[in-house]
Amino acid sequence: MNILVIEDELSLQETIRESLEKENFHVETANAFDEAINKVSFFDYDCILLDIMLPGGSGLNILRHLRSIEKGDNVIIISAKDSVHDKITGLDLGADDYLTKPFHLAELNARVKSLLRRRSFGRKNTVSFQNIHVDMDNFSASIDETPLTLNRKEFDILVYFILNKNRIVSKPSLAEKVWGDYMEDADDYDFIYSQIKNLRKKLRDGGAKIRIQPVYGMGYRLEAL
User: Fold this and answer.
1) Where are the domains of the chain?
2) Cα–Cα distance between 94 and 148 in angstroms, integer?
């Protein structure tokens, strides 16, 4: 996945780049308006992180340009400007999300992943498998239209399994996707077992027509019953 970070504060730009590269994204950067216009005009990106205040011009005009060349999808505004007017203008011009500085990198990474996940479903924010329905915008899940009560980690695990249904999901991969890249050095993954145990029980008790099957020595696989 290719991400363009348009940010003139070089220390923040570098911090964002390093964080996203740890998530295995390919990251390019632009420091000013003209450089950003050239890059978005000639190259395609899966996600653009866009500051509004830039040397040489406004990020809002970059949004207008993106819309004019039909590349306005998958833009997250990152800006210190926190007025309702700026947010509304940015969203009206086609931005998908708006994150106000200062922000935690974990939240930025989560917003990027959520946007890319929606993109993989044709910008639909729901996904289903068998009698399970998941609404990723509202962080809700249901079994045959009956609400399924999940904590946030259980929800994220379920979404990741559905996105990878019928595939073997390793514990390290699951830990990295749900808990973040700092999990790559974890000594063990007992915390995953307890979350999956609770999720499996809730799915079983709710009558879900799916199961999370352990694969010895490898991880887990989500299957239809």
Assistant:
1) 2-120, 126-224
2) 33
Q: Round to whole Å and give the CA distance between 144 and 142.
A: 6
CATH of domain 2-120: 3.40.50.2300
Residue 79 pairs in a beta bridge with: 100
Query: Rounded to whole angstroms, how far apart are CA atoms 131 and 185?
Result: 36
Q: pLDDT, tens digit, for every residue of 72-87?
A: 778 999 988 766 777 7
Buried residues in 21-44 as b, exposed as e (16+ CB within 10 A): eebebebebbbebebbbebbeeee
In this predicted structure, what is the pLDDT of residue 89?
Answer: 84
The verdict on domain 126-224 having CATH code 3.60.21.10 is: no
119: exposed, middle or buried (Cβ count in 10 Å: 0-12, 13-18, 19+): middle
